[in-house]
Amino acid sequence: MQWIKNIVWDLVVTVVVIVGVWFDYTVLYWIIAAYTALMVVTKALTAFTESWNQIIRKARNNTPDVVIHLIYAINLAILLYGKWWIVAGGWALVWLFSWLAQRRMSQKVTG
Q1: What is the pLDDT of residues 50-101, one digit of tens each?
Q2: How would you class 29 by CB atoms within 10 Å of its CB: exposed for 0-12, middle for 13-18, buried for 19 or more?
């Protein structure tokens, strides 16, 4: 259960997404949009470049992949519900790049 400490930030982001969508705060929209853009860039670099992939592999925690995918799915569903289309598209990319990076890392371990 050590991995629970590792997902605290992800849970905080999910709460901010829920509050932002539920109360339709413009300020939170822009904060979430900026964070999403950073996540897209980071996940894309991790998925497609070897140097970033090595950094992530060294820092990788023991959080089950299903938990990360569940958090991304919840964020995406909430953003779609709130009709925050552009940010939701960003989270879809985050989720896709995360999946690709996990796939790439698991191929390195088994291959």
Answers
A1: 776 666 665 566 788 889 899 999 999 999 999 999 999 999 999 999 889 8
A2: middle
d(CA 18, CA 84): 12
DSSP string for residues in 3-58: HHHHTHHHHHHHHHHHHHHHHT-HHHHHHHHHHHHHHHHHHHHHHH-HHHHHHHHH
The two three-digit tokens of residue 90, written as one number: 């960003």
Whole-structure pTM over 0.90, yes or no?
no
CA distance 77 to 79: 5
